[in-house]
């Protein structure tokens, strides 16, 4: 791992990635592009149950998919501290199986193409999101793959390998090993589910401050205001070559801006005044995600929703794990250990992340900040 004295090199044409991790406890609460939508729409359907939509409760329950992270990881985890805060690992899967095959060849496994740790502070009025670049070189602990095989621990491997090797449980285990913070919940969405969700919402309004063109993510946007439907929205959050220095660190900056725009869109879409649309969005959202087993029921999501209703886009602080480019391979990044430690200690103490933690990080030099509003 690199320390804070490591010099970051320029990023022209480099690949980078994304991922996240989170923190601790209390009634479920979160705010991420999919998680908040699922929680709120599920809550709305339950509220409307007495007016003839009660059957929707059971249909939505049938849509949800859960992974028993607790059983998979056992007791060798960070302490489960009940201090009123909460941490959620949010992953975007890049599986090319099935309908996702149009985005590349199916290699038989998925990777965590986007990773974010969302920390909900005590009182559930504010949150911090920390993106983990997918190409960050980390120590991956020993993991059991979904078929029961054993994958020995490995050092200096890309962060997103943990998902490929051992699925959601290994991704959570890797994050907890990095941060020493226990993840309260896990949620995952894939390409196809993300697109359908945006389309069902009617698109997301954004403004681009420059032209964005990226053949690899099928994106061609002029500068100005846009309402992005599913395919374009997916292209935007996947674009790397079309923004900033062409790195995945720039893509993270775009993703973070899009998440805030999506949150505002959900707030303004008026779902509770339109029961039919509310159910359609809830149906799409619950089909789009995989969660940990403690969130995979409408009842639990409703409880979760009650804890996040006060958090808006202006109440969320976005940052990227402090990193530097790997001198041996500029397509990889190394955590700045001292600065990363500041981030994790702040979240563990339920405190804001200090600005000094990200000063000098390559994540702030990708050149894509402000491209999307």
Could you walk me through the main structural features you see in this protein, from its secondary elements to its overall organization?
With 373 residues, the protein is of the alpha+beta class. The chain has a domain at 35-194 and 279-355: Nucleotidyltransferase, domain 5 (2-Layer Sandwich), CATH 3.30.420. Helices cover 33% and strands 21% of the residues. It contains ten helices and 17 strands. The protein has helices at residues 35-47, 54-63, 69-73, 161-179, 191-201, 230-238, 248-268, 275-288, 298-305, 337-348, and strands at residues 65-67, 86-93, 112-120, 127-131, 137-140, 143-144, 150-151, 154-158, 185-190, 204-208, 212-214, 219-221, 224-228, 289-292, 316-320, 323-326, 329-335. The strands form six sheets. A seven-stranded mixed β-sheet has the order 1-14-9-2-3-4-15, sandwiched between helices. Strands 5-8 form a two-stranded antiparallel ribbon. It has a two-stranded antiparallel sheet with strand order 6-7. Helix 5 (191-201) crosses helix 6. It is globular, with a radius of gyration of 19 Å. Residues 5-31, 40-53 and 103-108 have low confidence and may be disordered.
Labels describing this entry:
alpha+beta; two-stranded antiparallel ribbon; single chain; Nucleotidyltransferase, domain 5; 17 strands; 7-stranded mixed beta sheet; 21% strand; 373 residues; 10 helices
CATH topology call of the domain at 35-194 and 279-355: Nucleotidyltransferase, domain 5
- Which strands sit side by side, in order, in the main sheet? 1-14-9-2-3-4-15
Largest sheet: 7 strands, mixed
Oligomeric state of the chains in view: single chain
Per CATH, the architecture of the domain at 35-194 and 279-355 is: 2-Layer Sandwich
Silhouette: globular
Topology pattern, helix = H, strand = E? HHEHEEEEEEEHEHEEEEHHHEHEEEH
Strand proportion, as a percent range, falls in 15-25%
State mean pLDDT (0 to 100 scale).
Answer: 81
End-to-end gap:
34 Å
- CATH top level label of the domain at 35-194 and 279-355: Alpha Beta
Radius of gyration: 19 Å
Number of helices: 10
Tell me the structural class: alpha+beta
Number of strand elements:
17
């Amino acid at each position: 791992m690199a320390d804070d004295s490591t010099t970051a090199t320029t990023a022209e044409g480099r690949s980078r990635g994304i991922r996240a991790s989170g923190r601790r406890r209390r009634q479920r609460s979160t705010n991420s592009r999919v998680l908040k939508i699922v929680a709120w729409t599920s809550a709305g359907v339950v509220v409307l149950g007495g007016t003839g939509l009660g059957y929707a409760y059971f249909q939505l329950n049938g849509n949800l998919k859960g992974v028993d992270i607790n059983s998979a990881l056992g007791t060798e985890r960070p302490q489960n501290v009940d201090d009123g805060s909460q941490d959620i690992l949010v992953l975007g899967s890049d599986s090319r199986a099935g309908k996702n095959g149009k985005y590349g060849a199916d290699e038989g496994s998925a990777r965590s193409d986007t990773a974010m740790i969302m920390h909900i502070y005590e009182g559930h009025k504010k949150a911090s999101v920390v993106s983990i670049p997918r190409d960050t070189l980390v120590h991956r602990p020993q993991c059991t793959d979904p078929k029961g095989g054993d994958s020995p621990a490995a050092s200096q491997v890309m962060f997103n390998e943990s998902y490929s090797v051992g699925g959601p449980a290994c991704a959570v285990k890797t994050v907890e090993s990095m941060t020493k913070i226990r993840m309260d919940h896990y949620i995952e969405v894939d390409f196809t589910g993300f697109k359908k969700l945006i389309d069902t919402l009617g698109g997301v309004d954004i403004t681009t401050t420059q032209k964005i063109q990226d053949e690899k993510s099928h994106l061609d946007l002029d500068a100005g205001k846009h309402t992005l439907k599913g395919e374009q929205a997916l292209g935007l959050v996947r674009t790397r070559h079309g923004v900033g220095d062409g790195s995945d660190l720039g893509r993270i900056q775009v993703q973070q801006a899009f998440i805030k725009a999506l949150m505002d869109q959900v707030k303004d879409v008026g779902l509770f005044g339109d029961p039919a649309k509310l159910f359609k969005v809830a149906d799409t959202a619950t089909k789009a995600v995989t969660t940990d087993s403690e969130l995979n029921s409408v009842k639990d999501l409703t409880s979760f929703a009650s804890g996040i209703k006060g958090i808006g886009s202006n109440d969320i602080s976005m940052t990227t794990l402090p990193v530097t480019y790997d001198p041996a391979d500029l397509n990889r990044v190394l955590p700045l250990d001292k600065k990363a430690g500041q981030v994790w200690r702040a979240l563990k103490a339920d405190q804001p992340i200090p600005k000094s933690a990200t000063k000098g990080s390559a994540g702030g030099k990708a050149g894509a900040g402000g491209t999307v509003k």
